[in-house]
Amino acid sequence: MLQLIINGIVLGSIIALAAIGLTMVYGVLNFANFSHADFMTFGAYIAFVLNVALGLNIILSFFIAIAIAGALGVLLDFLVWKPMRRKNADLVSLVIISIGLSIIVRNAIIFIWGGSTRNFDLPVRRGIEMLGVTITHNQLIGLGTAILFMVLVHFFLKNTKLGKAMRAISDDINLARMSGIDSDKVIMWMWFIGIGLAGVAGILYGLETTIRPNMGWFLILPMFAAVILGGIGNPYGAMVGGMIIGLSQELSMLILPSEYKMGVGLGIMILVLLFKPKGLFGGTKA
Amino acid sequence: MSILQVEGVVSGYTDIDILNGVSIHIGKGEIVSIIGPNGAGKSTLLKTIIGMLKPRSGSILFDGRDIAGMTTHNIVAQGMGFVPQEKNTFPSLTVMENLEMGAFLRHEFTDILNEVYHIFPVLKEKKNHRATTLSGGEIKMLAMGRAMMPEPQVLLLDEPTAGLSPKLREVVFEKIMDINGTGTTILMVEQNAKKALSISHRGYVLEMGENRFEGEGSTLLEDENVLKLYLGE
User: Fold this and answer.
1) CB contact, 8 Å: A187 with chain B?
2) Full set of structural domains in chain A with CATH
3) What is the pLDDT of residues A85-99, one digit of tens each?
């Protein structure tokens, strides 16, 4: 039981971190970005290349990979999302584009690195045993890093001008423009931070499990569940929602076979949509 | 010398033109009201001036520069402010954060913040409350306060008293005169036409996307045609 709680918190923190960017994009640009989780995978593979193929230190690889993932987010905004905004593309088109993008990213990864699983080059260390539960070093590092990044996101949103502008744009993009905010510029930064955070989550997930081409894709539905649970457009809601989904998935193993883990997140998502469609904490969109 | 001069503007939404060649001019320091029946294009005119809608033809000169077709945030940067009728605050942000967003383009805003607090004391009291917790009247105050933060030369107000009680309407009209007293030129669209004209230097009557009448506020209030057609007498 305690072991499941710990595993749940670790998984939850990864979902939470990745869901921040997903909910911000959903809140501001009004579409469900199905390609979001594949940038988790992308971030993990870039870190893998830097760490294993180029032999860089894992911490350095980590930061460079985040920056590259974020930069790819910005590049795609310029190449795809911004032109679509100019054309006032409807929601369904955007969702379909994002699904296509997701397939492209995943298959590009398989094309370049193959379909087999990979691991970071790290010394194998024994986990810490306490009260009959085991926490691996990687879990501890993952959890610490995830919490650190969530605190950073909080500080950024509450205390910086750009962070406040992001919240303002998420509330009402037209009013933000009328306040003199250059929305395209803020959206560009939103992509950088959102996809960068997905990269962080992907690297941490790869650290705790293995790096494989569909590692992100299998997390997209729990991530949407977290976003909807927390209220679309609400980054704090996404963080709490991620934790709840991660915990419920792991704890469900007490009563359900583990194959149904994924179903639990979806079940929660459906219940929220039925009974509390604005999410637990209220989103910026209905 | 007009600070804002709209010449023959044609504008509207994707398929339809709402404005069919509207021309208005506003002098520095004036309060100018635009009245007219529903669907006359009053709000469309304000949205076109602030760049939410692009004019199909005509020119909009702001302090001598043509701003027609510029993006909204650039027009705001030139010194234009806008208070929409609805959706005029950021609900999840605090009162203080709303005002800060108003001052997005400025580095320093202590003086104007104090002035806004002076005109709207309730905003100072509730500065750490989220906008979503404010009453209807307080939201209007915050919306006007937010728009004042960049110290715009011209402030556009879309139906500033819509949905307010008669008492609050009086308060809002007083605040509009206070804002004008700080040297800000005001262009407003108002349903409450009589009261609006009575505090305005000049007014325009818009109908079917065209100017019908224009004149001093007091003259329009006494004009028989205007009275009959638009003031409900």
Assistant:
1) no
2) 2-113+136-275 (1.10.3470)
3) 888 888 899 999 999
